[in-house]
Design a protein that fits this description.
The protein is α+β, with helices and mostly antiparallel strands. Helices cover 34% and strands 25% of the residues. It has 12 helices and 18 strands. Strands 1, 4, 5, 6, 7, 8, 9, 12, 13 and 14 form a 10-stranded mixed beta sheet that branches. Strands 3-2-15 form a 3-stranded mixed beta sheet. The model has no long low-confidence stretch (mean pLDDT 98). Bound molecules: acetoacetyl-coenzyme A (CAA). Acetoacetyl-coenzyme A (CAA) binds next to α2 and α6.
Length: 390
């Protein structure tokens, strides 16, 4: 039985910070950001916007199109949890008016957990082939102000319908995976900003890629040259380039032709350049970027996927694009979400950045004037978050 991704929908904040503005403020040559790291803009969440509202906005088109008929599981993957106990997915279920006979839980392992969610979802479909699973990955990538990680911030969410006989991507069963206890990126419960050993994290990403690939290659009939494209976890554009150069070299192609790296990954990078890191959502935003921007018909092409979650867990997977996948794309809607964002001044960026949900248990209402799509976090009272439809 074929199992995989039947539909994908993406959402990001209505505001972005241009990296030229950040470079000017930090007195850094803007080419370091645009060329060295490969980031041009980053989506910035507005006051009243969090992983719940981003997720609900990403999944809303499924509600409007009846794509969620036959779903009764919602798997929510995030690094940016809003509660130690309650799954953010329960709020999303409420905002989307999904039926009460639903099961919901949250997955965590940094940026990797959306792939854990995908594996679980595919296992559920294998058990109940007539059912579909709603998988949502939603995150806000946040580093300290004036730290090297600041340029790699971003936010966004993807919603996916996982089903039998999928109309977009059929996933293979074989995958290679690797775990090692590392402190390359982490976020203690009391912090809103991630802590990161940036250089070590990029080395660990590559090490984990190669170890995952080795296991994958030992059990799959697919070889490096069988894949037309590779979708990587995308903390920033340049990371995918570095990773793919290593994987190409590991597969005996030396010197590595830059043209080959470009063919394999360039179309996966259009959205991350302007949206920034979206942690769990990033690998699927890379996939969407490829499917929506490739000038070629990708039907029947094989794709490689590498997910990396610091700390660390990685997995290399593969899949095949279903012929006719173009009919499932909503490129104009996604393009409009990105193109219609408003640029922030540096001062507004700092205001958005420092806006925090108060922790005093009092009643607080959040400003209504910012665009947060169809949903907003209206306030908090007695430590209870209050969401509303806009
Ligand atoms: N023009 C062009 N290029 C320039 C330049 C200029 N004027 N100035 C510098 N550069 C280049 C550098 O040569 C360097 O290139 P290489 O990487 O090819 O050597 C590149 O710009 C970056 O410069 P630095 O080496 O000085 O890097 P930095 O100290 O500013 O930090 C970073 C870069 C480590 C990525 C940092 O942004 C960071 O810590 N980011 C967050 C962590 C992260 O994203 N890690 C990725 C792996 S972990 C993961 O994937 C999980 C996750 O989502 C977090």
């Amino acid at each position: 039985m074929k199992i995989g991704i039947d539909q994908i929908s993406f959402y990001t904040s209505s505001y972005f910070l241009d990296m030229k503005v950040l470079a000017r403020e930090r007195q850094i040559d803007s080419k370091k950001y645009s060329v060295g790291i490969g980031q041009h803009q980053a989506s910035v969440p507005a006051p009243g916007e969090d992983t719940v509202t981003l997720a609900a906005n990403a999944a809303m088109p499924f509600v409007e199109s009846d794509a969620l008929a036959n779903t009764d599981w919602l798997i929510f993957a995030t690094e940016t949890g809003i509660d130690q106990s309650k799954s953010a997915g329960v709020y999303v279920h409420d905002l989307l008016d999904l039926p009460p006979n639903y099961r919901i839980f949250e997955c965590k392992q940094a940026c990797y957990s959306s792939i854990a969610g995908l594996q679980i979802a595919m296992g559920l479909v294998e058990r109940f082939p007539e059912k579909k699973v709603l998988l949502i990955a939603s995150d806000i990538a946040r580093y300290g102000i004036r730290t090297p990680g600041e340029v790699t911030q971003g936010c966004g969410a993807v919603a996916l319908v996982i089903s039998a006989n999928p109309r977009m991507i059929t996933m293979d069963k074989e995958s290679g995976f690797f775990t090692q206890n590392t402190m390359d990126f982490w976020r203690p419960n009391y912090r809103r900003e991630a802590l990161v050993d940036g250089k070590a994290s990029t080395r660990q990403y590559i090490h984990t890629l190669i170890e995952s690939w080795k296991q994958y290659a030992s059990i799959s009939k697919n070889t490096f040259n069988d894949f037309s494209h590779y979708c990587y976890h995308l903390p920033f554009t340049k990371m995918a380039e570095k990773a793919h150069t290593h994987l190409t070299r590991f597969n005996g192609i030396t010197p590595v032709p830059t043209g080959l790296v470009k063919i394999h990954i360039e179309d996966t990078l259009h959205y991350v350049r302007t949206v920034g890191n979206t942690y769990t959502a990033a690998i699927f935003i890379g996939l969407l970027s490829l499917l929506e921007n490739s000038s070629k018909d990708l039907g029947n092409r094989k794709l490689g996927f590498f997910s990396y979650g610091s700390g660390c867990v990685g997995e290399f997977l593969s899949g095949t694009v279903e012929p006719g996948y173009e009919q499932m794309l909503t490129k104009q809607r996604h393009k409009a979400i990105i193109d219609n964002r408003s640029g922030l001044s540096y001062e507004d960026y700092e205001y958005f950045y420092h806006f925090a949900v108060p922790q005093d248990g009092g009643r607080h209402c959040f400003p209504k004037k910012y665009n947060t799509g169809k949903f907003r976090l209206a306030g908090i009272e007695k430590h209870k978050r209050i969401y509303e439809k806009v």
